[in-house]
Amino acid sequence: MPDDKSVPSELLRLRAAYAAELPRRVGEVAAAAATVDAGHDGIHDGLKRLRHLAHKLAGSGETYGFHKVGSLARRLEDFAQHMMGLDEATLANPNFAVRRRVRALVGELEGLAEAAEASLKSGDKSFVVPASDHDHGRAVLLVEPDAERAGRTTRSLQTFGFDIVGVAHVRRIEEALARQSFDVVVVDSGAAGGETFEALQAFRASGVLTQALVVVSAERDFAARLAAVRAGCDAYLVDTGDVSALVAALDGLTRADDADPYRVLIADDDLSAASYVEVILQGAGMITSVVTDPAEILDSLESFTPELLLVDFYMPGCTGPEIATVIRQHEPFSALSIIYLSGESDAKKQFAALRAGGDDFLTKPMKPEALIAAVSAGARRFRRLRSLMSHDAMTGFATYSGLHRALEREMLRSQRTREPVAFARVDIDRLRRVNEERGRDVGDAVIRSLAQLLRRRLRRSDIIGRLGGQEFGVILPETRLDSTLPVFEQIRASFAGIGHGADGLRVTLSCGISGTAGLKDALAVADAASGALATAKSAGGNRVIVKR
């Protein structure tokens, strides 16, 4: 990975300027929170201001690499939003649990602002140098009565970069949440005997527990799952000792898969109507483009690359269903989500339109929330389908062909910019023996664990692909070859320390790394990394070899 010296000095200057501004920004948030805490008649206006300021702080903090600031501010924004839906009597209670949590979050933010100020005054710039993407963990409260199991789970989750705090009983949840902010609460269903779900349900109802909730249980039956749902459970895991399942659940609850805004093409010959729809969707954070001539739709699909098409049912010279049929016959857009917009209320015509290739039918006039919900659902389906078509089903990484194409693109970019690129091949040692002795389910869990470790320990800009079976490939843009070794040595050591299955089976990996310097194409780079990997394997495995 590039070290701190390779970060542009201008970016460091901007981060330093932001760090200097942080006390003022946090002070504004603290003042708004104090207004809310006072509990006077304008508390709802205070909550709106608190939510707004926290939202701005979260965005700016994450933008400039102050991930802890961003995470805390995001939690504060969520709490403000939650409190806005409560009645005056609840909000006026000075001992209301959420109010105490708001105070705690503000206190943590003030501590970070003070640390930034002190660091700058002392001339120490370490505070403003951004951490690597994988360095900022996610905070998890683990409720586990068995000390041995708690220790094992804590060590495993820490390997994947999570920050873990453990308590032994459900009744300790409120106390822990009052002291510190958490992103997820993980509860063993036996943490309060038969009263676990009742306690969790009470915490949800009182506002004590607003975080994502994962329940781990030995029970597989419907009744246990139903009780967990009624307690506000977001994920229910049957306890098999497979840490990869818990990591996957935590990642799913804390990672924003749809961070990039949806792209929507609006086709309507009535520019005024199209503009109205555009304003609503842009207000929901989407990127839009408008076309009024049906003949221009295919060109717009090529240039704008939308994830969803909103098309008027009656366009000049043709109908919406006819347009949908044309699009479906054009292979690059055959999977595009298409929603019709029309005042047409005839159910038979609507059904016929859907048979022609549409995914949904919205009748004008429509409520803005209905439009946003339908478009979001359609774009999300398209994004998911596209991901399934080009990514490995087990890991979500790029397929072999997708990774090869990405490596070709990065090599071309490297030739233009003269920035180095590195490529690594990572293979699990002796996985066949694991499959033969423990079963393929355990082997698959080992593969998923490595996939999750790679995802969490590498940068967002790194491109990971599954090359088949137990082997992965990683493209590292703008990365010198000599800086890859410590990164993959850390991954190797971490993977060797993970216990798989109920008995904590240990498995190792080998890795071969090459650079692009002096190599003419992607195949040559991949072959060089394969040679380094073969050297690591022949030396006994559990090692990283760099091909220089």
Short description:
With 548 residues, the chain is of the alpha/beta class. Helix content is 52%, strand content 16%.
Characterization of this structure:
This protein is of the alpha/beta class. It folds into four domains: 4-130, Four Helix Bundle (Hemerythrin (Met), subunit A), CATH 1.20.120; 135-254, 3-Layer(aba) Sandwich (Rossmann fold), CATH 3.40.50.2300; 263-390, 3-Layer(aba) Sandwich (Rossmann fold), CATH 3.40.50; 400-547, 2-Layer Sandwich (Alpha-Beta Plaits), CATH 3.30.70.270. It is built from 20 helices and 18 strands. It has helices at 9-38, 43-63, 67-84, 88-92, 97-121, 147-159, 173-179, 196-206, 222-230, 243-254, 271-283, 297-304, 320-328, 347-355, 368-390, 400-417, 431-438, 440-457, 484-496, 522-538, and strands spanning 139-143, 163-167, 184-188, 191-194, 212-217, 235-238, 263-267, 287-291, 308-312, 314-315, 318-319, 337-342, 360-363, 421-428, 463-468, 471-477, 509-515, 544-547. The strands form four sheets. The protein has a five-stranded parallel β-sheet, sandwiched between helices. α1 (9-38) runs antiparallel to α5, α3 (67-84) runs antiparallel to α5 and α10 (243-254) packs parallel to α18 (440-457). The chain is globular, with a radius of gyration of 26 Å. It starts with 8 loop residues before the first helix and ends with a strand. Mean pLDDT is 83; it is low at 1-8 and 130-136.
